[in-house]
Amino acid sequence: MNANNIESIETTVIESTESIVIVEISSETDELVETEMAGETDEVKRETKALIEALKRRAQAEADSAGTLTRETYLKVVRQTRALIEGRKLMERDRLENSWAIIQDEAERNWHLLMKDVVDFSFRLQKAAIAAWDTFNHPYSR
Question: What is the reported pTM?
Fold first, then answer.
């Protein structure tokens, strides 16, 4: 950053039970998270911004230390890591979608069983009422 290219920096304080970490959030990260996560709570946005900044710092540190590795090896590791992260995201979404489908199927099946029980009970109640009426009106019909 120089005098011609000044970037606003937001400072976020991340508290946990173990420690407090101060994370500087770039305007680029801030804008990205605010745009992509418009419907989320401030806490979710703040944590996401901190995660992105941590990933940026880690990636930069890894790129700086890549001098000991060949560029191809470093790129391979970065691509594998990205694929792993994206794969987990897809797997979690698939698991959630499958769970939701199972819940819907169970609810539908339970609803049909409940309705069957109500119809059966109604039929039995109707038969009992008819039998009671016949017995009341014709007590000696045997």
Answer: 0.39
Contact 76, 56 (CB under 8 A): no
Q: How far, in Å, are 20, 84, 98 from residue 87 at the CA level?
A: 31, 5, 16
Q: Which of 3, 28, 25, 29 is nearest to 13 (CA)?
A: 25
For 8, 36, 53, 108, 117, the CA distances from 39, given in Å and listed in that order, are 24, 9, 21, 30, 43
87-104 pLDDT tens trace: 776 677 778 888 888 888
Q: What is 49-66 written as a DSSP string?
A: HHHHHHHHHHHHHHHHHG
Q: What is the CB neighbour count within 10 angstroms for residue 62?
A: 14
